[in-house]
Amino acid sequence: MTHDDHGTVLVAGGTGFVGRRLVPELIQAGRDVRVMTRHPDRYHGPGEAVRGDVEEAASLREAMVGCAATYYLVHSLSSEDFEARDAEAATAFGKAAAAAGVEQIIYLGGLGDDGDQLSAHLRSRREVETLLGEAGVPVTVLRAGIVVGHGGISWEITRQLVEHLPAMVTPRWVRTRTQPIAVADVVRYLVGVLGHPEAIGRTFEVGGSEVLAYVDMMKRVAAIEGRPLPVVQVPLLTPGLSSLWLAFVTDVDSRTGRNLVDSMVNEVVVRDDSIREVVPFTPMSYDEAVRVALEERREAR
Ligand SMILES: NC(=O)c1ccc[n+]([C@@H]2O[C@H](COP(=O)([O-])OP(=O)(O)OC[C@H]3O[C@@H](n4cnc5c(N)ncnc54)[C@H](OP(=O)(O)O)[C@@H]3O)[C@@H](O)[C@H]2O)c1
Prior knowledge:
alpha/beta; Rossmann fold; 7-stranded parallel sheet; two-stranded parallel ribbon; 13 strands; globular; binds NADP nicotinamide-adenine-dinucleotide phosphate; ComplexI_NDUFA9_subunit; NAD(P)-bd_dom_sf; NADH-binding protein; protein-containing complex binding
């Protein structure tokens, strides 16, 4: 596959928050796109829907026949045993890709420093990077922190906390720094690395234009929405308790919420910005990303 090749591309997770925004952009770029989902009958978006379940190896082999490249945008964060499931799924996906002669797997994983004590969620996302490539297909990894866009789980937590809490109770993790990125910018990077000779087999870190603590993100959202957000310092709130009140004030699935809160002690900031040379553009500011997400929400309603 060369940079200009127009081979068929499979998007595993093409119905998800990131995937459903990626599919139309790939089509726009002239690619034939297969959207892999467990429920093709329910899919009415662009591209060709194909049935595939990462827990059924045979379905993966069939879905990938004739594909030059595949995206891997799948996780099982709402399952209790997500680490084992995601490890098995990534191994099976990598094997099927090798058997089908796929030349590039592109995976959107998580930021976080290896030297840190990473949460189970971030460790699992990191393990998937290696397992996807074990059967020999080169993997391009894009590691991201919070992805901002209507329907994104981490963004929804931020928005709903700001909108539903009369005052922000602040456990220690609200001081953790992160580098949120607009979903449109993630999609730009995902499209940009496809078939790019300088991206094959490489790991990149992607982030927006600002590094912000969780509490600052919430204050910015409150300011944009014109809401007051008094902040009450309660440094001893444990992650367990945090995820409990998260379940009360947001509609995010409680197990997913718990797994994400556990990750909030880990700083997720870009250390190496070499992606800027491979796919050059200036990412949106946080405020801009928030305005777009809120606008998307208004339109969806
Ligand atoms: N959202 C964020 O803020 C964020 C931040 C950093 C990194 N990421 C990464 O971005 C990727 C995509 O995340 P997302 O937020 O777009 O996820 P999402 O909205 O939860 O979508 C998950 C996708 O996985 C598919 N899926 C789940 N189980 C499957 C299975 N057994 N077999 C086949 N497909 C399965 C679902 O497809 P069907 O239900 O149609 O089968 C769905 O399209 C993940 O790797 C995630 O770690 C996300």
